[in-house]
Each structure stands twice: as C-alpha cells, then as structure tokens.
Amino acid sequence: MKIKVDIGPYKPEPKKIISYKREAPDSFTIRLDWQIEHGPGQFVFCSAPGIGESAISICSDSRNYVDLNIREVGNVTNELGKLQVGDELLVRGPYGTQYPMQDLKGNDFLIIGGGCGVAPLRGVIKYIDGHREDFNDISLFLGFRSPEDALFKDEHEDWDKRHKLFMKFDKMEHENSTACYTGSQGFVTDLVKQEVHDNTNKIAIVCGPPIMIDKTVEILREKGFHDDQIFLSAERLMYCGMARCGRCMIRGKYTCVDGSVFRLDHFEDE
Ligand SMILES: Cc1cc2nc3c(=O)[nH]c(=O)nc-3n(C[C@H](O)[C@H](O)[C@H](O)COP(=O)(O)OP(=O)(O)OC[C@H]3O[C@@H](n4cnc5c(N)ncnc54)[C@H](O)[C@@H]3O)c2cc1C
Ligand code: FES
Q: Which atom of ligand 1 is nearest the CA belonging to 78?
C-alpha cells in the first residue's frame, strides 16, 4: 500500500537561479525566477534536500524575481553555496510580517544595518527607490567586519547618490584586500551617535546581530526616539515558519508570524 503524505503549505517549489554573485568571502546573492507578491522584511525558506531548510530574507523588491543573500555559516547554507546559475532551488514562502511602508509615508528614514542584517534592508531601500515621492530624507548606516565583507558593494555609489550612505568597518585591513570602499574603522552604532540629532518625523529600521540592535536602540532612545518610531527584525531559529513548531517563540510571540519585523513597542510589551 502506498502512503500518501500531504505536506500542504510546507511544500517547497523548485525555482531556477538566474544569477549568482559572490558578495564576500562567505556570502553570495542569487536571483530566482520567482514571481511572488511580497513586502520588504518578509522571508522565505530555502531547502538543501537531505540536510535541512534555512530562513532567508528577501533582499529585492520586484514582482518579476526574488533576490536572496545567503551567508555560509553551517550545513544548509554551505550546501546552498554550491548552487550555480541554471540550477533549481527548492523554496517556500513568503513568510512573516513586513515593514508597514504605507503607514510610514512622509517620514525621514534611518536604515541601520550590521553584517548580513543589511540583506533585508536592501529590500527596504529598493522599495523606497520605487516609491521615492512617498518618503523624505533617507540615511543608510551600515556596518561590516571589514571592507571585504561589505554586501552589495556595486550598489554603494548609487545609494550614496540617491541617499546619504555612512559606513563603518570593525577593521580596515584584510589579507589580499581588493575591495573598493568608503568608510572608516568603528562600529555602526558610532555613526548613529554622531549623525542622528533628533527624532522629528523620523523612523528607524534596525537589523543586525542582537548586540548591535540593543546598542542602537539604547542610542536612539537617548536621542529622543519613542519605541513606536523604531522597527527591528528579530532572527530566531525557525523550523516551520507557520506558528506550529513553537521553535521561534520569544516573549509569548511567534517570531515567524508575529515578526520577524516588529515595531519596538509591540515587541517589548509582553
Ligand atoms: C527571519 C530570518 C531571516 C533570515 N535571513 C537571512 C538572510 O537573509 N541571509 C542569511 O544568510 N541568513 C539569514 N537568516 C539566518 C539563517 O536562517 C541561518 O543562518 C541558517 O538557517 C543557518 O543554517 P545552517 O544549516 O547553514 O547552519 P547551522 O549548521 O544550523 O548553524 C550554524 C550556526 O548558526 C546558528 N544559527 C542558525 N540559524 C540561526 C538563526 N536563525 N539565528 C541565530 N543563529 C542561528 C546555529 O546555532 C549555529 O551556531 C535568517 C534567519 C531568520 C530567522
Ligand atoms: S518557526 Fe515554527 S513556530 Fe515559528
């Protein structure tokens, strides 16, 4: 007797890789031939058959394709790093909440990212560029381990022309460095301290390692920001992405469906 297993909404679909770009020694960006409705901040699950699945943020804003930036940190992501243009990747999604861009029209934006946390923020930048008249001044504060580790290097010049781009690197030197960059040594939080003067009509979007998020929130509060002006993306280990396994719960919330984008006052009110 054949047993039919219906995995319903967990069923991944194969999508062709139409471009592949190495961004840094341990990270790459792929473009998938995948037309889906989604908003900035949402994520998908990528499968490495026989190994597992990883949640990965969408870092584009298009109805024609989906870009994903993946850092090779372990079993699944190292396997995904072997993919090439023309291969098919098993994906499911999109999942999670999005930055409520419609409700945030008319504000200045501080887009603050650290390391691979910059990936979902690229989706926000792309959204703003596509709806430029809806938003005021945009400042990008990005931090990476070194210039070599910076993501989306080809786009920095354009971002700097369209917006204000500030960058910091934990260290400036890297063996065999060929990276082209502007920026100085230090932490992204130093930039926030130096360049942000008040909270008037400003929205801050923060994504990065937990310690960077905590420090940034502390500085923003000192500058007069209220928690409803701050959005953050909380990354937790996830399995199902659908509020079923409970793996991602924090403060009584499912990060996979109540987040991963949270307004700070909603994140901290439990
Ligand atoms: C909503 C969301 C969006 C994400 N977006 C991206 C993205 O755009 N690009 C990207 O490269 N990664 C992203 N991640 C992280 C990514 O899912 C993990 O790095 C990946 O699943 C690791 O799987 P692995 O099998 O390669 O590594 P593993 O072998 O499972 O683990 C390697 C190490 O990383 C730790 N780890 C694994 N997953 C996480 C996690 N979610 N948070 C903290 N530590 C973790 C493990 O404990 C272990 O120490 C996102 C995670 C979430 C929850
Ligand atoms: S990942 Fe399973 S409940 Fe959120």
A: 26
Which three-class secondary structure state does DSSP give residue 261?
strand
pLDDT at 4 over 70: no
Determine the distance separating the centroid of ligand 2 and the alpha carbon of 45, expressed in angstroms.
Answer: 12
Cis geometry, peptide bond prior to residue 47 (ω within 30 degrees of 0) = no
CA of 57 to the centre of ligand 2 (A): 15
pLDDT value at residue 172:
83
Query: CA 158, 46, 153 angle in degrees (round to 5)?
Result: 20
CB 230 within 8 A of CB 243: no
- In this structure, what token pair is assigned to residue 40? 């900035």
What single letter denotes the amino acid at residue 119? A
Question: What is the crossing angle of helices 153-162 and 118-130, to 10°?
Answer: 40
The mean predicted confidence, pLDDT, of the chain is: 92
Q: Give ∠ CA 177-73-83 in degrees, rounded to 5.
A: 85
Q: Which two tokens stand for residue 201?
A: 């009509």
Q: How far is the CA of 75 from the centre of ligand 1 (A)?
A: 10
Using alpha carbons, list the distances in angstroms from residue 241 to 3, 8, 186, 221, 253. Answer: 25, 13, 35, 31, 13
Task: For ligand 1, say whether the CB of 240 is within 6 Å of any of its atoms.
Answer: no
Count of residues for the chain? 270
Q: Which domains does the chain have, with CATH numbers?
A: 8-95 (2.40.30.10), 101-233 (3.40.50.80)
- For 148-190, the DSSP string reads GG-S-HHHHHHHHHHSEEEEEES-S--TT-------EES-HHH
